[in-house]
Amino acid sequence: MRSLLAVLCLAPLAAFADDGWREVMHDAHEASIDAAHERAHRALEHLAPDAYGRSDAPGALALLDAPLRVTDYEALLGNWRCRSTQVDSSTGVFAYPAFRCIVELTEDGTLVFTKTSGSQRRHGQIYPSGEGRWVFLGGQSVNDEPYRSYSGLSGDADGEDLALDSVGLVETLKDGRVRMIFDAQADHVEFYELSR
User: Fold this and answer.
1) For residue 118, with 0-12 CB atoms within 10 Å meaning exposed, 13-18 middle and 19 or more buried, which class applies?
2) pLDDT for the residue 162
3) Which of 54, 59, 84, 162 falls 20 to 30 Å from 156 in CA-CA distance?
């Protein structure tokens, strides 16, 4: 019975196997996934000489370059401590203490990530992307604002919604941590380091 329930819950995940997330993603966001590593490296390499928090750059680079392991969705489930590091080439590296995050499998088989503490929140769906990688499509909110979904899921692509969208590459690391690379651009990126 338990295996049947697992199969039924995973049916929606199978429907989005590998690159199925591209069907709902706006074209403007694809490069933030496809070139996430390259863009993140570029943002770190081009930090201004007087940029704030340069001492946190090696830690961000080590996270970015950490080796991967292939896992299934079950490795993502549960409560996490998530540490955010924001990189902006012109202003600096801003590392924050760990906040609370959770990854849940809903009854309909949707894998959902939520950052539940801190002033800057993210909430959205996680889709498989092959080779132990996943794609996050969600939205950003602040403090106690309601969580936002990715605008592509509702077919709404006006500028206001796109500005609050957040996309990310999700990867499991050999040591059991999870790396999330959000909204990667040539001059800025945000990392979440998830640990138990």
Assistant:
1) middle
2) 85
3) 84
- What's the Cα-to-Cα distance from 102 to each of 46, 76, 171, 180, rounded to whole Å? 33, 9, 15, 13
Residue pointed to by tokens 């959205």: 124
Min mean pLDDT across 6-15, 57-66, 162-171 is at 6-15
CATH code of the domain occupying 2-195: 2.40.128
Report the alpha-carbon distance of residue 185 to residue 168 in Å, rounded. 11
Tell me the pLDDT tens digit for each residue of 67-77.
999 999 999 99
Q: For a pLDDT cut of 90, what percent of the chain falls above it?
A: 81
The tokens describing 187, both together, are: 């001059």
Q: What is the 3-state secondary structure (H, E, C) of 130-181?
A: CCCEEEEEEEEEECCCCCCCCHHHCCCCCHHHHHHEEEEEEEEECCCCEEEE
Q: What is the mean pLDDT of the chain?
A: 89
Count CB atoms within 10 A of the CB of residue 147. 16
Residue ranges covered by each domain of the chain: 2-195
Beta bridge pairs of residue 94:
86
pLDDT greater than 70 at residue 90: yes
